[in-house]
Task: structure prediction
Amino acid sequence: MAGDPGTFLYDGECGFCSTSARMLVRWVPSEAVVIPWQRADLDALGLTAAECDESVQWVRGPRHTSGPAAIADLMSTSHRLWRVLAAPLGSGPGLAVARPVYGWISAHRHQLPGGAPACRG
Result:
């Protein structure tokens, strides 16, 4: 993992997802690569298009997470404040709350700002 800043993948064909990714890049500074999954080498990352279409993905070395855990992992590569906030988000109780919220957002992203019918999952 040394020298691997990590890769965060999102749906580049969804306006809501693209806007959210731009906000992450702006507000959660990291050396990680934040890229639409449609432009990534999924084979090299050990992912499938179906996995990426389902939720955001995080890959760093052998570690692979998705959904809110992936967001927490990206946050954990940023400065101290984001690392402190990432810890509870990426843990059992935090994920128990974050997973249904993420699921609702994912299911309704086509209705959210920047969303379009093409964003429907």
The first strand starts at residue 7 and ends at 10. The two ends are 32 Å apart (CA to CA).
